Every structure is written in C-alpha cells, then in structure tokens.
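Quick check before the chapter quiz. The format below is the same one you will see on the exam, so make sure you can read both the input and the output lines.
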Amino acid sequence: MEERGSFDGWPGKVAVIGAGTMGLGVAECFAAAGIEVRLTDATPETTRQAKERLVRRAMGHAEAGLLSAEAVGRAEAVETADDTPGASRDAGLVFEAVFEDLDLKHEILAACSKAAPPDAVIVSNTSSLPIDDLAEAVEGSERFLGVHWFNPPEWTPGVEVIPAAATDPEVVERVMRFLKDIGKRPAIVGDGPGFVANRIQNALFLEALRCVEEGLASPQEVDEVVRSCFGFRLPFFGPFQIADMAGLDVYVSVLETLKEGLGERFEIPNVLRDLVERGRTGTKSGAGFLEYSDEERERLLIERDRRYAALNELLERLPPVEAGRGGEGS
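Here is the expected output.
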C-alpha cells in the first residue's frame, strides 16, 4: 500500500461507523494513508474487539510485506468511540459501513448526520441500496453521497461514487479528490440497480454458472478460461476499448451466433449494429466506441502487447493460488 499524508486539511478526522469486513478494511486504508480515524461498532465491546482485529490485520499485512511498521503504528493509533454520535462529533468525513439493511442505515445516517459538524461530508458504503432512499435520513442531504468500495478495500483500487439527486457537486469533487489522494481510482456512476460493477459482475457470473449447468465446463475450467483469456485483459482495458481492438464487426458476428443458439439475451444492441453499419468497426477503421488516429492506434496496440507480456511474465513468476477441490456443480 502506498502511504500518503497531505490532504489539504480535509477531511482532518474520519469517523468509520461499522467495523465489519468493509469498515475495518477502509479504516486500515485511511490510517495507513496518514489520516486520523475514529472507529465505532454496534456496542463498546464489539468496538474494542474491532480495534484489536484492526491491529492484528495491519500486523499481518506488515508481516506479508504489504505495510510498513509506521503504518502499523497508525493503525494502533486509531481511536474508538462508544457510539455513532461520539464517533461523528468532530469528523470532517463520516464513513457509514453498517450492514446492508435500509432501516438500519437510516437509523445510523440520521444519528451521525445530526452529531457531525454541519459541513461534514456523510457517505454510505453500499453495494446496491438506492442512494436517494438513503439520503432521506440525512440532515443536510446536499452533503451526502454513496460510495461502493470493493473487497479487500485496502488493496482494490476501484471505488464507485454515487451522488444522490440532492448532492452538491462540490461535495462530489471533494470526495473524488480525496479518494485519488489515498491511491484509489474512483468513478462517478448513476444511482441504478447494482450501480455498474455489480451489474456487470453478476451478468458474468450468471453466464459462468449457465456454462457449468449446461455441462460445457467445470467451475475450475470456467475460472481458468476467465482468468487466462478475456479476464487477462481487464487490468488494463475496459469492455469498450477491448471491443474496439478486437473489431466491432467481429462482435456482431459472434453475437449473431450466440443469439441463434442461446436466445434473446444475446440480442445485438442497436448502438453496436449502428456503429458497424457506419463503418466504425474499432481501431482498424480509426473509430469504434472511441476514435483513434493512426499514431494513437499504433501506440495503443504496442502498449497493449507490452502490458500483456509483462503480466504474463509476472504470472509465471508468482506461485499458483491454491484452488478448492471439485464440489457441487463440478
């Protein structure tokens, strides 16, 4: 983890409300970055236990070479509070990470937004709950937005940032800047079901599961295909740029075969068919979803090859990850 320290005076102190898997990981991430953190959980006793787990977790990461001794010291310096108002009272940022239950989140958001300073930013970490619904419980909803961190939060760089309808754009900019300062790669997304990451991730999972159900491959074989084929590209490129490099006309052809064999869920979207009919077939034509000059195309493809080769070399050096044994569905 890259350790950082200067944040233009904001947020000063961060209150982390809820010390489950995500809350504890986020608290460690903040502390390692040099931010003053105050942690609370459901009761004083569970808060004390959470602080102990936080320190053990940081020590384990240091033993694995992922954190410095100084970062462990910052985790040890994390403060605790007996309740939500006590944690929130002087925080510049309140990070709510309690269980995914709307009523519980409403209760906690109402309490922390009442206790926190009027200019404190309030965020709720959620993977699916509607942000506008959560905002109803917040005093001063213009300072509220949703965030979706990913497990493990210390090491996964992506964070979805989801403004509510009432969120002040300046608050969004401040949170985005802060997340970048601590080494994250945030993206602003809309308040739709599952946001973006879960929608795409679960679509992939359902198709993977269907492949197993239909007897095409075992879970282990599907995992290998995903890891070493199209998943191999994903650390560097998203689906639109991958499609551009492969050729949108190729995608249309493949989707026609999939639709014929598997039905309407592989219907070719109008936007894709329209691009191909207009000759925008990707990098080879100079335009697809994105546009490319000859120089940009050549540079992109060479850089793609360089990165893929480097990743392949890294994977060859790393020991294999121990896989589970075949079980249900294999």
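If your answer matched, good. Residues 234-317 form a domain with the N-(1-d-carboxylethyl)-l-norvaline Dehydrogenase; domain 2 fold (CATH 1.10.1040.10).
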